[in-house]
User: Fold this.
Amino acid sequence: MGTTVPDMLQNMTSLTALSISWCGLVGEFPRGIFNLPNLRVLAAAMNKLNGTLPEFHSGSRLEVLGFGLTSFCGNIPDSIGRLQSLRYLDLSLSNYSGPLPPSLGNLTRLTDLELRLNKNLPLLPGKLQKLTSLFFSEMNLVGEIPVSLANLTQLYNLVLGGNNIVGKIPSFLMNLTQLNVLDISLNQLHGPIPSSISQLKNLEYLYLNSNSFTGIVELEIFMSLKNLVSLHLSRNKLTVLTKNITNSTLPKFNT
Assistant:
């Protein structure tokens, strides 16, 4: 048996932060909490809460909205674009559906966007140029990696694994030089792994496994990635060459 979120919280108009993640909460989430006038942080992730997102007001001060791993469902309302102060949005591992509202492009302060495991949402417009983390894994995304991502030059984490993305690794990804994590595993990408991937000097984690990459890949191209600690190349159709490797500084990788 879990505990429900008390309705009385909807009347706490002076509340600036409400963090109730991982609290074993169940039942319907009181919608009035979303529109408390002074609320800046609202985090209720990892609970068995259900409900839908409300219509948001333009005067909202919300900076953090975290409802990942809940039972929330329905459409993400277009009014979410009114949350002009929003920096962090996590709606991952829930049951949202319908189109991703173009108004998300209005959230110019947004740095972290997590929508993992929402099965019917398309990729967003590439207007969110302050994004540092984009988690869109296992969302049934189709088509090629969109060129709009080229605008997100501050990205630190780009996770697109477990979708149905096709095509080759686009050259514009090499402009995302701040990347620490690049995960495009478990897709339907093909063609060679470009040597220009060595331009991503800040990479620590590179997941290219479980695609249909072909051709010869020389491990020498990864030698310049001095921060790399995890390299995943398994389950492709690659021929791996090591003839020019002269030291043992290469990170461990899967073949």
Q: What stands out?
A: The mean pLDDT is 89. The first strand starts at residue 3 and ends at 4.
